[in-house]
Protein: Phosphoserine aminotransferase
Organism: Orbus hercynius
Amino acid sequence: MKTYNFSAGPAILPADVLKQAQTELLDWNHTGASVMELSHRGKEFDACAIEATQNLRSILNVPNNYKILFLQGGARAQFAAVPLNILGGKRAADYIDSGYWSQCAADEADKYCQANRVDIKTKHDGKVALKPMANWQLNQDAAYVHYCPNETIDGLAIFEEPNFADKIVVADYSSCILSKPIDVSRYGIIYAGAQKNIGPSGITIVIVREDLLGKSHTALPSVLDYAIESKHDSMFNTPPTFAWYLSGLVFKWIKQLGGLAAMEQRNLQKATTLYQYIDGSDFYQNHIAKPNRSIMNVPFVSPNEEIDKCFVAQATKAGIIGIKGHRIVGGMRASIYNAMDLDGVNYLIDFMRHFEKTQG
Ligand code: PMP
């Protein structure tokens, strides 16, 4: 039976990419060895790393005054790395509170500075919504403003891009990077764990504007120091070579499909189809106001928790995996990252329709 993977991360990867990795697993690039078995200092891997970096730069349109780093420790390591790299002499930073992950980032930053929580949650037609950027109350003394454009657990998204004059903006793009074109020049730092829209877990992308390098705290571990990592082309220590290689294959796959404009169209079509079905049903509900609905993570509930449990169990039997909502919020969540296609979403909707009938 074919399975449809709606996991929030680690998540579905493009089947073509996995097949290519499979064919090259034992003999990569005519080296007679797997990419996992070769030195990161060798010319073969070096070329692979450079190509992946260049392809990411081209699809995301990263300006030349930004470094692209491939680091480890996931997005959570960046929760600490960001303040330790760029606070400079300042003592406070603004943390926009939009949900679970932005709160986690603020909690970690508390160790290093005063993390000012800026609550932007509000209600719109009785549903959860986020205030527009123009209404964010930022503090003068903050070294930077941090926000999370896509709250993976809550299914909440901020589609506006920042425009705060000379403020340094830091964004946790973990669950929406490469889902649509963005204007990188509006950010000081963009970071993202790979395991949703990029590749396997174990690698984290950091895109940092060059003028922010070199302000780091003396107690910052070298592996998290953007200046050191950038000087060493992200190879200060041994990088996760397989994850880097696989991410490179995903970048090529995105390019072949038409880049981020094509990804956005594909993602909007999937999300619109699913939300339209949920909105048209009396059985399922999504609690997020339309302007803030994530196009990557779609949480929904049935009439009660018992039925939710039954839904998850029966969905699994029908080949739908990873659909259970995060333990904090319960219900269900369909993560529909780049690699999920419209057929997968339609399969889910067919199952939802069928399931509702069986509950009558
Ligand atoms: N930020 C966001 C938006 C996330 O979705 C996640 C993981 N789900 C994290 C941070 C934490 O990522 P990691 O496990 O890579 O540290």
